[in-house]
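TA notes, week 10

Several of you asked for a full example with nothing omitted. So below is the full record: structure tokens for the whole chain, then the designed sequence directly under it. When grading your own attempts, check the secondary structure regions first.
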């Protein structure tokens, strides 16, 4: 729709922004033709109304002796749909649109722009959250850039830009975004970034991976609890969304257990890696263990790795000292991380697994109380029976805690592993959710 003059277009804008409202002719004259003599200004308004009738239809321009209105629903104005996700925000309200000789219109535009800022921000944040939910960080970045242009001191915008850069492995530029924001915040407001944003920056600086330990690999001298690797996630929006929904529920103290199954090479590891990076960005503590066929006969092999990682992250300091004492049986990292932990008492062989199971549950509760906890066991079908049995017990006794447990496995091998199969198929565990990865189609 083209107009010969900006004032004609400005009249349509003013009417469309509040479609259905009746504006007095005097108001519209003052808005756009205050610099003209009264008779000429009234004539200009009449001409503009005629142009609008020709453009949108006579029946849609509601003209009375003293008022003018535009029928509701005739013009689709994005500014009236800021409560939805389908509006595309590209900048401030009427950015770049000026009407020479219409000071009142410019004043109205500036006031409207200021009033709309909160709505624009909320809409962009909602759209960024929708992108996060399906692992679409290209969308997150696009909306974060717009929000950053609107408000360079918006922490939501800076976080979105940092996440998007980290998602593709560009930690350097993610940290540059943080550095510029930190400096500007100090210079203009004398303030500091929030602890959450600082934590994300620290995570990016460290850049250590939470990858599962490879068979035969020596333990690293430093904790390896954080992973920021570029992962190309294609065609897994549904599965990522299911994981993210479970993560949101876990954060609200509704624990969830996701059994992620699929054939070798179908993308379980890629999906899990990408999802864990998102959780870590949002404050999760992550413990991840890889189960191996060669270690199937070693009792507590999987749980020992999980305990080790949580100890190295100092995530279980709030646990009962007696529980920590029991866990020292499988993790020498605990007394090094928490000096003063007592030695475990001697128990009979038939009692010790029960004591260990209780200690592990208390450890999980303590870790999840400090921060949302994501525990991952890769290839649960290869887990030792003792670890699988204790995880099963934890699943059945889960309190309202911030825990997300992800178990990955191959369906064909799960059917042949008694304890792991009992865990992942127990219909009495309310938190259990199956998630099967099918091979991607040719497209």
């Amino acid at each position: 729709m083209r107009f010969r003059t900006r004032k004609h277009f400005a009249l349509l804008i003013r009417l469309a922004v509040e479609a259905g409202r009746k504006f007095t002719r005097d108001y519209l004259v003052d808005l756009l033709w205050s610099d003209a003599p009264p008779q000429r200004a009234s004539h200009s308004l009449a001409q503009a109304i005629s142009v609008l009738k020709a453009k949108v239809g006579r029946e849609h321009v509601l003209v009375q002796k003293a008022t003018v209105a535009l029928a509701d629903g005739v013009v689709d104005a994005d500014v009236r749909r800021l409560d939805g996700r389908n509006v595309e925000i590209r900048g401030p309200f009427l950015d770049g649109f000026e009407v020479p000789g219409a000071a009142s219109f410019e004043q109205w535009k500036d006031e409207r722009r200021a009033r709309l800022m909160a709505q624009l921000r909320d809409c962009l944040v909602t759209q960024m959250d929708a992108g996060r939910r399906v692992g679409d960080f290209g969308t997150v970045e696009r909306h974060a850039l717009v929000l950053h242009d609107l408000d360079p001191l918006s922490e939501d915008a800076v976080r979105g830009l940092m996440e998007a850069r980290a998602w593709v492995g560009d930690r350097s530029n993610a940290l540059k975004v943080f550095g510029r924001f930190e400096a500007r915040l100090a210079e203009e407001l004398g303030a500091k970034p929030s602890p959450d944003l600082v934590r994300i920056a620290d995570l990016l600086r460290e850049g250590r991976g939470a990858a599962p330990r490879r068979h035969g690999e020596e333990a690293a001298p430093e904790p390896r609890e954080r992973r920021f690797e570029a992962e190309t996630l294609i065609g897994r929006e549904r599965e990522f969304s299911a994981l993210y929904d479970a993560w949101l529920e876990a954060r609200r103290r509704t624990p969830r257990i996701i059994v992620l199954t699929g054939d070798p090479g179908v993308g379980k590891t890629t999906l899990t890696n990408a999802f864990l990076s998102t959780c870590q960005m949002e404050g999760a503590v992550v413990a991840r263990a890889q189960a191996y066929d060669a270690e199937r006969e070693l009792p507590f092999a999987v749980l020992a790795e999980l305990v080790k990682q949580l100890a190295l992250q100092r995530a279980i300091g709030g646990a009962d000292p007696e529980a920590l004492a029991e866990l020292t049986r499988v993790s020498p990292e605990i007394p090094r991380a928490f000096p003063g932990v007592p030695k475990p008492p001697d128990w009979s062989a038939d009692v010790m697994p029960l004591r260990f199971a209780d200690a592990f549950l208390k450890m999980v509760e303590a870790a999840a109380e400090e921060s949302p906890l994501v525990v991952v066991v890769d290839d649960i079908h290869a887990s030792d029976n003792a670890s699988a049995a204790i995880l099963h017990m934890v699943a059945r006794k889960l309190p309202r805690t911030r825990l997300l447990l992800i178990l990955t496995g191959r369906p064909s091998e799960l059917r042949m592993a008694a304890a792991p199969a009992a865990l992942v198929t127990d219909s009495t565990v309310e938190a259990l959710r199956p998630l099967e990865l099918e091979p991607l189609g040719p497209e």
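Residues 237-436 form a domain with the Rossmann fold fold (CATH 3.40.50.300). Use that as a sanity check on your answer.
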